[in-house]
Design goal:
The chain is mainly alpha-helical. Helix content is about 60%, strand content about 5%. The strands form three sheets. It has a two-stranded antiparallel sheet. A two-stranded antiparallel sheet has the order 3-4. A two-stranded antiparallel sheet has the order 5-6.
C-alpha cells in the first residue's frame, strides 16, 4: 500500500518563544525521550540493539496514539455537524437531519473499509485510482514510514465521514431518505476516495506538488460541489423563491447551531494539527504551530463576517457569524502547515467576507442551500487552496515536495498554477460524477419527497417521530405549511440560519 502523504518530511523552522530563539521541539523531544527511556528501564544495562528497538517501539506508540486521538477529534465533528444542521433547519425536519448525520458515519465506516480506503490509498493505477487494499486486514504497518495501518485507516475514515455529511446539509428539508442512503454510499465509496488518491494517495496531483495540507479542496470542496449538484437537481424548498423574491426560511434553534459550531471548531484541532501525521521528529511543535494558524483564521473569519453582515444588512447576524468562523476554518485547512500566523489571519479574514457574498450569490441564482454548505466548504475551500499559492513559505513547500511556493513570498506563479489545476480538476470531477449520480437517483428511486410530505415535515413522514415528541406531532401526509402559491411573511435578507444570507455547515 502506498501512502505518499506519509513520506513527506518536516522542514526545520525557527520560532521565537518568550524572547528566546530555538529549534522547534528539539529540547522538548529529547527531554521526553530521556524520561521515557528511564521510565521503561531501558536506558542502562541493555544492549544497543535492545535500546534501539525499544526506542522505535516508543516512537511508534506516540505517533500511533496521535493518529487515534486526532481521528477521535475529527469524528467528534459529526456531533458538531449534527447540531449545526439541526439548528439551521425547521422543527419538522430536525430528526431527519440528525438521522442522516448518524448514518454518514455508520455507512461511511463500512463503505470506507470495503472499497473507499483501497481506492484512496491502494497501489496507484496510472495515478488515477488505488487498485488494492480492499477489505483490508489492517494488522500491520505501512510500507513507507512503518506507521500503523489501522491508525491511518481510522484517521482517514473520519475525514471521509466529514465530506459525506456536508452533502446532507445542502439537500436538507426536501430530499428522500432512501435517496440520501444511495448517494452517501457512492460519495464515500467512489467520488471522494478517488480525489484523495489524486492528492494524498500517490496520484497525479500529489506528484505535481499540489499543496493541500488537511483538505480545503480534497475534503471540504468535494462535499460542497456534490451538495451543489444535488441541490440543483432536487430543486429549492417550497416557498423559498417566489418570483424574483428570495424569502428567508429561518432555522428553529440557534442555540444548537452555535454549540455545533464550537464543537466543529474544537474538532478542527484534530483535522489540521492531526494532519502532521505524527508527533516525533519535531512534528509536535509543528502541530502546535498549526493549531495557532487554525485559531487565528477562525477568529478572523467570524469577526469579518459579522462586520460585513452589519454593514450590508444593519444587523449583527448570528447565522453569518457562525458561518464566518467556519469559513475561516475551511479557508486555513489547505495552508495550515504552509503559512505563517500573519498569513493565516489574512486568509481567515478574507474567507469570512467571502462566505457572506457567496451565500447571497447562490440565493440569487436560486440554488437553495439551507445550511450554507456550498458557500462555507466550496467557495472558502477554493479560496483557502488558492491562498496556499500566495502565502506558502519556501521551506514548507520544499518539505512537501512542491515545485514552487507563495507568490507573495517571492516564489513566482508556479505554485499558484498548480493549485489552480488541482481546484479545477477536482471541481470538474465532482460536478460530473455527482451530477450523473443525482440525475440517476432522480430518474429511478426519486430524489425529492412529495409536496405534502415536505410541507408536513420529513420527521414524521420518513421516521415516524419528531425531535421534540412532547409537542404535538403532525399525522403523516398532512400539510401544515403554505404551498408555493400562497403568501409567506417577508423576512430580512440576513434571516439567520437558512435565510437568504444565513446558515452554515
Amino acid at each position: 500500500m502506498t501512502l505518499a502523504r506519509l513520506v513527506r518530511t518536516s522542514s526545520p523552522r525557527t520560532f521565537v518563544s518568550f524572547g528566546a530563539v530555538r529549534k522547534p521541539g528539539l529540547g522538548l523531544f529529547l527531554g521526553i525521550l530521556t524520561g521515557l527511556l528511564a521510565t521503561f528501564g531501558i536506558a542502562y544495562g541493555q544492549s544497543v540493539e535492545e535500546n534501539a528497538a525499544a526506542l522505535a517501539d516508543i516512537i511508534l506508540a506516540v505517533d500511533t496514539i496521535w493518529f487515534v486521538i486526532a481521528g477521535i477529534l475529527v469524528f467528534f465533528m459529526q456531533a458538531g455537524f449534527g447540531l449545526l444542521e439541526a439548528g439551521f433547519v425547521r422543527v419538522k425536519n430536525t430528526a431527519n437531519i440528525l438521522m442522516k448525520n448518524v448514518l454518514d458515519a455508520s455507512l461511511g465506516a463500512v463503505v470506507w473499509w470495503a472499497v473507499g480506503f483501497g481506492f484512496a490509498f491502494g497501489g496507484s493505477q496510472g495515478g488515477f485510482i488505488g487498485g488494492d487494499s480492499f477489505f483490508p486486514a489492517l494488522g500491520g504497518l505501512t510500507e513507507t514510514d512503518g506507521v500503523s495501518e489501522a491508525a491511518v485507516f481510522f484517521f482517514q475514515w473520519a475525514f471521509a465521514a466529514t465530506a459525506a455529511t456536508i452533502v446532507s446539509g445542502a439537500l436538507a428539508e426536501r430530499t428522500k431518505f432512501s435517496a440520501y442512503l444511495f448517494y452517501t454510499v457512492f460519495v464515500t465509496g467512489i467520488i471522494y476516495p478517488i480525489v484523495i488518491h489524486w492528492g494524498w494517495g500517490g496520484g497525479w496531483l500529489g506528484e505535481r506538488g499540489f499543496m493541500d495540507y488537511a483538505g480545503s479542496t480534497l475534503v471540504h470542496s468535494v462535499g460542497a460541489w456534490a451538495g451543489m449538484m444535488g441541490a440543483i437537481l432536487v430543486g429549492p424548498r417550497i416557498g423559498k423563491y417566489v418570483g424574483s423574491e428570495i424569502r428567508a426560511i429561518p432555522g428553529h434553534n440557534m442555540t444548537l447551531a452555535t454549540l455545533g459550531m464550537f464543537i466543529l471548531w474544537f474538532g478542527w484541532y484534530g483535522f489540521n494539527p492531526g494532519s502532521t501525521l505524527g508527533l516525533s521528529g519535531g512534528l509536535a511543535t509543528e502541530a502546535a504551530w498549526i493549531a495557532i494558524n487554525t485559531t487565528l483564521s477562525a477568529g478572523a473569519g467570524a469577526i469579518v463576517a459579522v462586520a460585513v453582515a452589519k454593514f450590508r444588512y444593519g444587523k449583527a447576524d448570528l447565522g453569518l457569524t457562525l458561518n464566518g468562523a467556519l469559513a475561516g476554518l475551511v479557508s486555513i485547512t489547505a495552508g495550515c502547515g504552509f503559512v505563517e500566523p500573519w498569513a493565516a489571519l489574512i486568509i481567515g479574514a478574507i474567507g469570512g467576507g467571502l462566505v457572506v457574498f457567496s451565500v447571497e450569490f447562490f440565493d440569487k441564482v436560486k440554488i437553495d442551500d439551507p445550511v450554507g454548505a456550498i458557500s462555507v466548504h466550496g467557495t472558502c475551500g477554493v479560496w483557502g487552496t488558492m491562498a496556499v499559492g500566495l502565502f506558502a513559505t519556501a521551506g514548507a513547500a520544499e518539505a512537501w515536495g512542491a515545485p514552487g511556493y507563495g507568490l507573495f513570498m517571492g516564489g513566482g506563479f508556479r505554485a499558484l498554477l498548480e493549485q489552480l489545476i488541482g481546484v479545477l480538476a477536482i471541481l470538474g470531477w465532482v460536478v460530473v460524477t455527482a451530477g450523473i449520480l443525482f440525475f440517476v437517483i432522480k430518474n429511478t428511486i426519486g430524489l425529492r419527497v412529495p409536496e405534502n410530505e415536505e410541507l408536513a415535515g420529513l420527521d414524521v413522514q420518513e421516521h415516524g417521530i419528531g425531535a421534540y415528541p412532547e409537542f404535538p406531532t403532525v399525522a403523516p401526509g398532512v400539510a401544515v405549511e403554505v404551498s408555493a402559491g400562497e403568501e409567506l411573511p417577508a423576512a430580512s435578507p440576513a434571516g439567520g440560519g437558512g435565510g437568504a444570507a444565513g446558515g452554515g455547515d
